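Reader question, answered in our methods column.
A reader sent in the components of a multi-part assembly and asked whether the whole thing could be modeled at once rather than chain by chain. We filled in our standard form and ran it. Here is what they sent:
COMPLEX SIZE: three components
ENTRIES:
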Amino acid sequence: MSLFKLFQKNTKNVINHYNNLQITAISSRKLSILPSIYDGEQDPGPKFFSSGVQALLKRLTRPDFAKVFRKRTNSNLSVLRTPKYKFLTDEELKAEMSKANQTAARLLQMPPVVKVHEPINEVLSKDPALVGYDTSKYLFTDITFGVPNEHRLIVERNPDGTLQNCDHDTRKRLNQIYFPMQGRKVREPIMFADEEKFNGLLEAEKYEYILDRACIQYEPDEPNYQKITSITYQHVDMKTNFNLLRSTRHFGPLVFYLTWHQSMDNLMLELLQSGIVREAVLLMGLRHAIHEDITNADEVNVLVPQILPTPVQLTKPETLSEEDIQMDNKCVDCIAKYITNNSAMKSQQELALQGFREDYQQLVDLSRGLKKAHGNA
Amino acid sequence: MSLKLFSLRHLFKKPICVTSNQTTLYQNNVVSNLTNFSTSSIACVNFFNKLPAEKLWKSVTSVSNAGAKKGRGKGAGRIRIRDLNRGQVIGVGKINMLWPGLSAPVIRGRELLKQQRLPDDPERMEKLIKLRDSMTKFRRLKLSPIERGWSGARMPGRSIGPPDPIGDDEFTGFDTKVLQLRSLLIMKGTLGRTRNYQAMVVTGNGQGLAGFGFGKAKEATAALRKAKNRAGKKLMHFDIYNGHTIFHDFFTAFGKSKIFVQKKNEGYGLCCHRAIKEICQAIGIKDLRAKVEGSNNLQHIVKAFFIGLLQQRTHQQLAEEKKLHLVEYKAENEYYPTVVASPSVVRTKEEIPKDETLDFIQYVMNDKVILKRKKFPRFYETMPHYDIFLKKFERYRNHEKIRLNLKVEYGEVKSFLNDKYPEEKVESEA
Amino acid sequence: MPLPPASGTGRYFVKAAKSIRLIRQGCTNRPFFHISVTHRKRLNSQPVIEQLGSYDPMPNFNNEKLVALNLERIKFWLGHGAHVSPPVAELLGLAGFFPIHPRSYMTAWRNRRTERENSEKQKEAEAAAKTADAA
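And here is the structure of the entire assembly that came back:
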């Protein structure tokens, strides 16, 4: 679809443009971000839900339990509660921890990325003899118990006598009227409807709030949802505020969005600058899984399954084992190839990689020296 | 009684007025007043100017010996002796005259002042009456709400500053609160019944250091000072969990006073006996709930609470006692299990006896359970009018929410139909 | 519970005749109807057996009239031989659940006729005005 390509091109241009400017002056309230939706011929759903991509996205989220289980103001508790205490044996503690991991998985469950829905236009019957019966439309909703919202029977009788199934907007509205979902409004909230307010929120970097609210207000296959999230993702990318969304459920869709639109080089640069080369390789793996345009795909495919079981790096390691050093060196080589062949920001990424190499060499020397001093070498 | 006073004042003034009137009459315009001149004699000596003021006042205020024994002449209706001459200056009277040499200098500058009448001061009498009235009323000592204690101007609950420095060591950051001040009556062989004062105070710096002390003396202030300084010498240190509460719930008792203390979340506040509240504030504990059962003896409550605080165990100690991990769950963190203390050796499930109390609260409370009284319905809930109210209120149950939503949507309480059929605007200025 | 619920108490006599009808809720100048099943001889102010839906006859801000129907329960009560009152039958007809009620057709036809007559009258009046102007 030409429109899709146009969007894709535009976003890419925007991002490249900003990168060249080194993200200097983005103080204007009017952002030149164009929303883009997943409306191309290719459906992102199957790729997003495939187990390989899900594993990569979950790992790239870099879940930090301190942030996942942080004190939330938007929970249903109006006041704090007295903490509870328990005496636990080792096994019980392990069981509790695994339960907590499940809770974390629930809290980090990613909102689905799917194609926008097709409009419903199904005429059930036409009765010209009913013209003039009423000047307003009749909306009939079947409120039978136990029917899910998407399968609910909702029909409309127009003033011209046609009986047809309602479109998505009406369906959503009526579902919300008869089966209200907590937090969702019948009319679009002002923070989304008013561009000024929305931009204000973006400027204030309240990305998680925007995305959380959008998850409640919209369905994932709604064009509005995809527009709002795409603008937010691009804003995050533009300001390289990835850390604000890390270890939240929105980081996966963000990475997926950036990779899908071929604009993940900014994220790659951020990863290299913060020295997390393993995740950079995972990002390459993700790009390969989506687009299959990486030149050294074999290397990446070998490295990714090795990296995935290793623990998440939340802080810089103090000592390194030989296996770690080997793996990191492999990752660095792999990234160097990626930069020369596929990257859109070669010079900057090369610089960042060089910086990492120097730092890493120091770390390696230090840890080897320590080992020698301890006599373990 | 006020009527009596008024008549008294009236009579007092009378002779003075008469004389002053006469003098002015003679001096100003004798001729014009000759028509009013009467020849009848005036008795200038009577009961009120024959006796001195002291004796007159005594006759009003004195109470007979028998009456005094019964407690008469005390309290609210008591008459007090007042100096009615207060505010009166010689040479200044009802008629505002200038008397050179009496109420004014003879020569002002180079001018010789003449005796003359000045314009009347209408507020003079009011001022005098006000001055006299101010002497009658008994003023209770009024304290600002910040200085006030638990009850009015009484000492318990009031702050009396830090203890006196010992040598060069000063008690900076300390504050002392009075918990109890009472008089004790002691029989002595020679003196009979004598009065002693006993004070109990707590002092602390709000950062874990606190102590309480008793003091006895003949005077209340001395007793307080003694107690304060003794409290300063008996400071104890208490660890505060996360800077806001105690480490765990505990049960403590002294004599027949029993206290059940519960650890609470941040922002809960101090929900306890007022003495315990003062102690907590002195220590620096911010959130806690305490229930006192049994005897309400204040000294026992204070002692029991301090003992309980001292017998607290840290999480590490508890874990070591039980040889189990101590895990904390907080609702705001989605009940993420945080290990607050781990023992050096952890028991396995098989090593734990069947009848051991594993419940944390039960363990730290020493198997004591707080009595939770059954909640009875409010007195009005069983009455027929409450039913009627509920029925009537039923139709308004959602109005508040809808008004709020309309205000969010339209900025005021109106519907989309108002654009089509606008309501007549009521003039708000009328 | 201070009042019996408007959605019905669920108490009924098995053999008594039932009727599905509109029951006016709402307040003065603001009609709102529940579609409920109740005993045929029972007043509309009395507690109903069960609520089967709702009907808001006042168009909302999108010029729509909202009707909710619990089709499963309606089918159940129809199977028990419940009588359907004409307004409810009309709504069910418009919803495509019943055949269109003849009264709906009649109303539509009458509305069209009055509209036609009104437009004709207007035309005549205009023509008359024109001739008057010409004269």
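What stands out: Residues 102-135 of chain C form one domain. Chain C has a mean pLDDT of 93.
Send us your own complexes using the same form.
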